[in-house]
Amino acid sequence: METKAIPDIDLFTDGGAEPNPGKGGFGTILKYKGRQKEFFGGYELTTNNRMELMAVIFGLEKIKTKAKVTVYSDSKYVVDGIEKGWVVNWEQNNWIKKKGNLVLNKDLWSRLLAVIKIHEVTFYWVKGHAGHIENERCDYLANLGINSEDKIKDEGYMDHLEHIDDYQEKKIEKEGDLCRKCNTPTVKKTPKKRKIKPNKAFYYEYYLSCPNCNATYMVEDAKRDVPKNDSLF
Prior knowledge:
Layout: E1 8-18, E2 22-32, E3 35-46, H1 48-62, E4 68-73, H2 76-83, H3 86-92, H4 106-116, E5 120-125, H5 133-146, H6 155-162, H7 164-167, E6 187-189, E7 202-204, E8 207-209, E9 216-217, E10 223-225
């Protein structure tokens, strides 16, 4: 029995916000066997990165059957996020970054991962505003979205604004501050032996440690200048 070949589709995308954050829009072009479809959308308040993600998501979700899709985007954020495996690592870590703060745009990254699993998708970065025909057209479409009169709310971004503290880096400054990774109170640790790297002008007299996950944090209050004769070491 002959296996039916899946279609090869090109997806071109662009997105932006004016200002950033500000009113936003995305433009998407789907190409298949010489046929082309164009789409755009606008949002009242959003960011550049969210619109870049939305452009890809919208295009992939428009494809009605499994396909080989080549995505062309001028967003390093989007392309590297997929091709370098960042988003897979974020998902595996429950959308928490190494410093303990939440991953931005989790809602859209999750949605993108879900639709990618339906297709065979490859991402390519193209330089923006450099004469690439489809990219320039997508930029035009995105601006139609930005300037449209029927822009909608970006609910994901509004949720982000309500929980902004969770997305910002948590500073660890003193014993008892909560670990960025697991929210356990940190404890003060003083190393029994210290090794100072060559040409270093300072060292840390102590550090803060998480008794639960063993994460360590170097803090400014523990920083000490290296004595000129190094006699303490």
